[in-house]
């Protein structure tokens, strides 16, 4: 690849966040096209790369044996020169050494593995570390209960995700294992225009390093808000759990809800707990987000639209 073939993008376009960076790098890797991105995260209060963005860039660099320039913390410009298609059927690790979102590391790497045909038939393995339930990002439970089941149902790709350790802000330290099976041919085309009625609402209300009563209060707040909006209690199933100390780093709380519909759609809503917010209100906030995703009438929620 020579410099004349380089595509240059303005990372400050639209919301000016990390989403443009992740999509552009994944597409560049899959298309084997070099790309330069300037004004990275120009729309954020602290522009430039953070640890989680740099870790994601290094992960995709390893996937396709790329040459990466400018990948330093706070850098606002990078260039990325892939040399081969993303290599599947291997094991990869990414760790921002912070509470940076594990879900966003998966977001940038998963398309590379799904859309690159396998040559050996062996699954690809990812070990991703950082924050499993981080602010301003999908919670890892969303990836486990919404994104991956959706991909399995509609595209036939049965990727699996396990969470040996959860990590919370500000320590991070979580670890997630993902196995992506080989994709031996083109993915099937999907037409999804009818959502159908909601047939079930599931959820996970969780705490780590805090009393289980907080998880139960979040669950109660969510159930009350759902029933007040007209949802039949028979459709609602929300677990309240307290993580074992050996299964979590740091303390945190939150709730993730997901609605399944008759036509195979899954839409979600979530909220993170805080010392400043009553736990019952956290449950109600998650219902509010879920309700907003259902209210627009689409077949996917706000997070799925950009995955």
TrEMBL record:
Keyword Iron appears in the UniProt entry: no
Entry-linked InterPro entries: RNA3'-term_phos_cycl_insert, RNA3'_phos_cyclase_dom, RNA3'_phos_cyclase_dom_sf, RNA3'_term_phos_cyc, RNA3'_term_phos_cyc_type_1, RNA3'_term_phos_cycl-like_CS, RNA3'P_cycl/enolpyr_Trfase_a/b, RPTC_insert
Keywords attached to this entry: ATP-binding, Ligase, Nucleotide-binding
UniProt domain RNA 3'-terminal phosphate cyclase: residue ranges: 14-305
Any GO molecular function: RNA-3'-phosphate cyclase activity
Reaction(s) the record says it catalyses: a 3'-end 3'-phospho-ribonucleotide-RNA + ATP = a 3'-end 2',3'-cyclophospho-ribonucleotide-RNA + AMP + diphosphate
Signal peptide: none
GO cellular component assignments: nucleus
Superkingdom of source: Eukaryota
Binding site for ATP: 107
Annotated RNA 3'-terminal phosphate cyclase insert domain residues: 193-294
EC number: 6.5.1.4
Ligase listed as a keyword: yes
One record GO biological process: RNA processing
NCBIfam families on file: RNA_3prim_cycl
Recorded family membership: Belongs to the RNA 3'-terminal cyclase family. Type 1 subfamily.
Known role: Catalyzes the conversion of 3'-phosphate to a 2',3'-cyclic phosphodiester at the end of RNA. The mechanism of action of the enzyme occurs in 3 steps: (A) adenylation of the enzyme by ATP; (B) transfer of adenylate to an RNA-N3'P to produce RNA-N3'PP5'A; (C) and attack of the adjacent 2'-hydroxyl on the 3'-phosphorus in the diester linkage to produce the cyclic end product. Likely functions in some aspects of cellular RNA processing. Function plays an important role in regulating axon regeneration by inhibiting central nervous system (CNS) axon regeneration following optic nerve injury.
Descriptive protein name: RNA 3'-terminal phosphate cyclase
Organism: Trametes pubescens (White-rot fungus)
